[in-house]
Amino acid sequence: MLKKSVSTTFVTLWLAALLCSLTVAGIAVVRLSGVLEYEPIIINALTPIKNNRKNTIQFNDQYTVRQTFQAHTPNMSDIGLYIVNNNNTDREAVLTIELLNAQHKAIFTWHTQIKNLRADDITIIPAQVRLQRGEKYTLQLHTNGVEQGSELIVYYENDATTFPDGDAELAVEQNGSRQIQQLPGNIHFQILRHPTKWVIWDTLVYSPTGWLFVLTGIGLALTLIWHKTIQAFARRFVSPISLPSIFVPWRELIIPIIIGTILASIATAPYYTQLNKITTMGDVQRALVYRGVARSALLNHGQAGLWDPYLCGGEPLVANMESAQFDPFFLLILLFGENLGTRLSVTATLILGFVGTYVLARTFGKLERLPSLLAAGIFPFSGFQMLAFANGNFAWIPVGWIPWAIFFFLRSFSSMPICFLSALTLAFIFLGGSLHMLLYALLACGLLALFLSIFYRSARPIISLCMIVMLFIPMVAIKLLPASEIQAISGSFERPEPYIQPWNWLGKMFWDRNQLNTPQWSFEKTGENYRWIEWGSYVGIVPIILFLIGIYSSYKKRFFMALIASALIFLLMTFGEFPWTILHNLPFLYGPMRNPQRARVIFLLLLGIVAGYGLMKTGHWLAFPKKVKLIAIAIVVTLILIDLVTFHSSLYPKLFSLDKPQLERSNSFIRLDHSYTDEDRGYYKVSYENYLAGQGVTDMCMPYMMGRGIHARGVGNINSGDPYFGEAMLVLGGTIQKVDIDGDTIRVKAKTNQADWLVLNQNYFPGWAIIPTREIKNWNGLVAARITPADSDVTFSYQPLSFIVGLWISVSTLLLFIIQKYCNTNQCCKSYSKPDRKARRDIAQNNRIFSRRHFNR
Q1: Same domain for 36 and 62?
Q2: Has residue 525 got a pLDDT over 50?
Q3: Backbone φ, ψ for residue 397 (5° rounding)
Q4: How far apart are CA 681 and CA 397, in angstroms?
Q5: Are strands 63-70 and 168-174 parallel, antiparallel or unpaired?
Q6: Shared-domain flag, residues 149 and 257
Q7: What is the 3-state composition of the chain as percent helix, strand, coil, each rounded to the nearest 5?
Q8: How far apart are CA 840 and CA 477, in angstroms?
């Protein structure tokens, strides 16, 4: 049986590794292709002034133009040329483009008819060629069928100062002889890298991603060849370990669920007594719009909401880290609407965290029921979550999944399939829009894995963690790939240095009862007064004392030693000490981990469990009758829970306290420069009210847009050079008759008499498609499509490839592991099929003994 278990474990491990590698490769592809599609990388480019008649060549069959350049990157996809045909040239004549290497041998040749050249834009010539970085190449142009006096024009610069490593020359054939004339500047040409399949493949082959696939394949091959040796190694070092635990029946959870529901309802009651009130907190406004757009897309069109046309001039929705349409709490949004559903989600996550912490403390901490209730109350109702939700930080709604993720992680030590449940709960945190909480949950599992591996002298905790991570990555590919693509496009942006509280604030953070009004909560560098919002972590002095007692009384218990060591590390991180000093400087972690005080979410979870143990040991030490001790412990737990729930009660009525502004609903979609603001009446930003009125805005942006820039325009634009032109326009003139905007689909009725660019007033991101099929490009940061006079009805839709690939990976991951689980269950059933009478008696007897043991525990 052990041999079969080890074999199943390795099959599962390698299946997870392959899916994880596929997801990582997908991330590499979408990050590369997204950047190339958003702004094709120009290796070499010149842009002389158009229509400058002084610097032109009347190009015909007698002329040959040569342009040299030095390659700066190994692969290219296209050549862009600006050669103008003013219709007097024979349109059936042919232009030949050749690319010569340093030995003057043609490595690329392309023939195109003159009629295919664009008169108003660059003509793109496909040219998939691998170049040698630093080598000199020559671009050579000549024609066949173009007579003298034609209107085929080639432009060149006055000088070559903008491109010193290139030279241009004109060869003229006259009377059988050739004369070479050096041009003072270079012709207008571009060597481009578009996201073609060839460029992506060629780039990945020479990247670490390619090596990842090679190593995964080698590992799989070695596993198949040396499976017996590897299984023997696994039985020695990766065998299951059983943490000391007790069995918690589902019936026992009824009371914690009731208590958690009562406490959460009391804490968040002002949410529901003020349903007709609003708030100007930006996090709330964004959260409501994100959920409203996603709800509308699913209910009205039966699809995921991929594009948010309302905020920030239009931006991807699934790729937004704070989007939450794949979160289980989104069911509340579907049932009750985004306004009530989001408020219910806060209450639900407090209940979820309460019950999850109770199960964690009861099962692995082996706490009695009352001390477990104390631990359960400290995690959701201490200062961290109470202040976050009183302040409207609704991006942290998935925080209630953290204790469940840790619980299933610990359970996976004895049963590897449980890794799937831990990865699933971590996926709920990420899909719910809380990257910060995900990272701290993973770090908590990592520290526990490290310490428990040392204490139990087994690699199983680390192997379980690796399995969970490898399952988690493909599980969230549906959001991870689009988010990675947008992050690559947006690049880095400036952030203010984080303010790290000094150690003398320790008491004020955790037990000072006046912390809500203390003036020292100020951000000196910016003048903002954060007060309690970022640093308040109130639990009270009694839980801190119980925490210290728990440390003292559990120093010989390996599980609690791991909890305490991890808790102390998170406490150090809260004050900006090691390991935060290293972690926040790692790639991709500076943004989500720049505020170390948020590490206290895990510290308070672990503090609650250790404090519960301290309360249980204190009760054991008291020399009182059992009933008296039970009553005393119940009183202590009740008073602490009441204190935690009521301490921040004065803040919750202040969140939703403003009357709704009376905004007239727009007959058709219109974009404003700013969200509705009326500071005299207490309003700051109420973009959700603009959303309800059918109005988009150019503000309320996520931080990643800071570096990328906002290009959409709105009514009342303060920049007179960029007036609002409506939600669509034609570059060369024409008529926009109608624009319908419905989520990620935009329909335009237009009339034009010439080939033109139809521009949408939506920020450009890779993933836009058009019906009928036409070329789409980035036009000064906006979405633009090439149309002809025949294109009167045009439909734009946002369907990024990153989402489609991620969807298939995530669905495949779920299906594969459901199938494997089913097959394993079937195999177990077959192994016990048709037992004889004696075997059936033995099985029944063993089941009765097993049940009695668990009942007694």
Answers
A1: no
A2: no
A3: -55, -40
A4: 29
A5: antiparallel
A6: no
A7: 50, 15, 35
A8: 46
Nearest to 231 by CA among 519, 4, 534, 38: 4
Residue 840 has pLDDT above 50, yes or no: no
Go through 376-400 and write b for each residue having 16 or more CB atoms within 10 A of its CB, e for each that does not: bbbbbbbbbbbbbbbbbbbbbbbbb
- Co-location of 134 and 226 in the same domain: no
Q: Which of 433, 401, 422, 424 is nearest to 288 (CA)?
A: 433
Closest by CA to 466, choosing from 529, 422, 509, 425, is 422
Domain extent, residue 226, equals 2-40+201-237
pLDDT band at 529 (very low <50, low <70, confident <90, very high): very low
Peptide bond into 653 cis (omega under 30): no
Contacts of 597 (CB under 8 A, 6+ apart): 500, 501, 534, 535, 574
Cβ 24 vs Cβ 809: under 8 Å: no
- Same-domain pairing of 221 and 344: no
DSSP string computed for 727-742: SEEETT--EEEEEEEE
Q: 413: closest CA among 374, 377, 455, 443?
A: 455
What backbone torsions phi and psi does residue 401 show, to the nearest 5 degrees? -80, -15
Task: Determine the Cα–Cα distance for residues 375 and 773; give it in Å rounded to an integer.
Answer: 59
Choice among 253-257, 588-592, 657-661, 720-724 with the minimum mean pLDDT:
720-724
Tell me: do 263 and 384 sit in the same domain.
yes
Q: Mapped to the 3 state alphabet, what secondary structure does 7-25 carry?
A: HHHHHHHHHHHHHHHHHHH
The more confidently predicted of residues 161 and 280 is 280
Rg of the chain in Å (alpha carbons): 33
Is residue 163 situated within a structural domain? yes
Q: What is the mean pLDDT of residues 124-141?
A: 92
The verdict on 476 and 596 lying in the same domain is yes
Q: Is 361 helix (H, G, I), strand (E, B) or coil?
A: helix
**Secondary structure class of 566 (helix, strand, coil):** helix
pTM exceeding the 0.85 threshold for the entire prediction: yes
Backbone angles phi, psi at 173, to 5 degrees: -95, 115
pLDDT at 729 over 80: yes
Sign of dihedral through CA atoms 82, 86, 91, 94?
negative
Cα–Cα distance measured from residue 365 to residue 137, given in angstroms and rounded to the nearest whole number:
70
Specify the number of domains making up the chain.
4
| 584 touches 593 (CB < 8 A) | yes
- Annotate 194-226 with DSSP letters as a single string: ---HHHHHHHHHTSHHHHHHHHHHHHHHHHHHS
What is the three-class DSSP state of 66?
Answer: strand
Gap between the Cα atoms of 730 and 9, Å rounded = 60
Distance CA 96, CA 578 (A): 63
- CB distance 598 to 580 below 8 Å: no
CB-CB neighbours of 838 under 10 Å:
8
Which pLDDT band holds residue 705 (cuts at 50, 70, 90)? confident
Asked if residue 785 lies in contact with residue 758, where contact means CB atoms within 8 angstroms, the answer is yes
What DSSP designation does 423 have?
A: H
Instruction: Quote the percentage of the chain above a pLDDT of 70.
Output: 87
